[in-house]
Amino acid sequence: MNPDLGRLQPYPFEKLAALKQGLQPPRGQEPIALQIGEPKHPTPSLITDALIAHLHQLSVYPTTRGTPELREAIARWLTVRFQLVGGNASRLGIDPERQILPVNGTREALFAFAQAVVDRSRTPLVLMPNPFYQIYEGAALLAGAEPRYLACRADHGFIPDFDAVDEATWKRCQLLYVCSPGNPTGAVFDQSTFARLIELAHTHDFVIASDECYSELYLDETSPPLGLLQVAAAMGNPNFSRCIVFHSLSKRSNAPGLRSGFVAGDAALIERFFAYRTYHGCAMSLPIQSASRAAWGDESHVRENRRLYRDKFTAVLEILDGILPMERPTAGFYLWPKTPIPDTEFARRLYAEENLSVLPGSFLSREVAGCDPGENRVRLALVPPLDECVDAARRIRRCVERIQREG
Questions:
Q1: Mean pLDDT of 324-350
Q2: Phi first, then psi: what are they for 198, rounded to 5°?
Q3: CA-CA distance, 204 to 220, in Å (whole number)?
């Protein structure tokens, strides 16, 4: 067996199941799940219709590179969304032949990418935010690299302090995972942060893997989050050298079961990743490619999706105002409040007293030098319908008020 498998930690939801072991929630309360970021809004009919209409293509082997039609639809979306050529949809700011690959959701691609790019013979470091999506850590470990965790603290806007990273760390870094908008904080990188990372990548010879799967869930319609490729192009790097982005339809289009996304960026990196994936055996089926093409070509359902999340944030934050310290995020569908008692105990009490499941922040983070940036926070995923989110907020308020009375 691969000895690195023994270095993997239990997944956050395994830890949560163990934490809840032996607890009996109130029988009169319906369960509400805020612990997992699984969208619950309806999948748009344009996606399901396209999928059903192309089921006859199940009789055909798909190719690893995907159909030209899907890659062109993705290229058009990227060009307009991230202003790669001034937002002019008639010109493509990225080459669909050489700079885009469809993938079966960003999770598998974020993992597989590290296996393809890390050179384990050079004592590699893989840098990642802390707290983080645990796939980054597992990918680093199974690629034979050492994970290095960069704290995302409130006093730095929940963005890692990249200027505090020393020269020796950058020299050993082969891959930097970033997540903007962030999971679980909702923090968004600005132009100068992306630009600084691109400069560092060229200076120290590492690759930036930008997880942008929450990029379309922003709360201000006039201010969509920037993307890594957008900043690279603005800096005069139209080839996106050392830059790779990961996008998904799971959150954007409420289609987590479709398992559809893409990677895009540096053509040389894409070509090597393509070679890896040819052996990996992970081509996307043709019906799913057709459904994905329909999804990337439509924005009306995405705007409606954002409206639904805005309504939930407004309602929940109004109920929890003055109860839990938290900030309204810029993007994503998570809240990241501080807890009045240790995060694991707070999660246990919410489940035992209110039949409400939330994820302790420390299950998403690692302690470094005596500091754990996820400690005494919880992640609340506002994915259920509005009425359930409102009910959940009221349950949280009741629980906190009990804790306050006890104190």
A1: 96
A2: -65, -40
A3: 36
**388 shares its domain with 252:** no
* 357 touches 35 (CB < 8 A): yes
Residue 254 and residue 348 in one domain: no
- Map residue 344 onto helix, strand or coil: helix
How many angstroms separate the most distant Cα atoms in the chain?
65
Domain that holds residue 245: 45-298
Same domain as 271, residue 145: yes
369 shares its domain with 235: no
pLDDT of residue 85: 80
Domains identified in the chain, total number: 2
Residue at 224: amino acid letter: P
Roughly how many angstroms between the first and final C-alpha of the chain, as a whole number? Answer: 51
Provide the β-strand partners of residue 246. 211, 263
What is the number of residues in the chain?
407
The bridge status of strand 100-103 relative to strand 261-265 is antiparallel
HEC string of 155-217 equals HHCCCCCHHHCCHHHHHHEEEEEEECCCCCCCCCCCHHHHHHHHHHHHHHCCEEEEECCCCCC
- State whether 31 and 55 are in the same domain: no
Cβ-defined contacts of 203-207 (< 8 Å, 24+): 203/170, 204/170, 204/171, 204/173, 206/170, 206/173, 206/174, 206/175, 206/176, 206/242, 207/117, 207/174, 207/175, 207/176, 207/242, 207/243, 207/244, 207/266, 207/269
Residue 2 lies in a domain: no
Nearest-angstrom CA–CA distance, 237 and 229: 9
The helices-and-strands tally (H runs, E runs) of the chain is 14, 12
Q: What gap in Å lies between CA 83 and CA 214, rounded to an integer?
A: 18
- pTM of the predicted model over 0.85: yes
Q: Which residues partner with 142 through β-bridges?
A: none
Choose the final residue of a domain: 271, 298, 325. Answer: 298
Q: Kindly state the average pLDDT of the residues 50-64.
A: 95
**pLDDT at residue number 404:** 94
Q: Detail the DSSP E strand segments found in 226-362.
A: 243-248, 261-265, 334-335, 356-357, 359-360
Q: Give 407's pLDDT tier (boundaries 50, 70, 90).
A: confident
Together in a domain, 290 and 325: no
Of 298, 314, 347, the one marking the end of a domain is 298
Dist CA 343 CA 196 (whole Å): 34
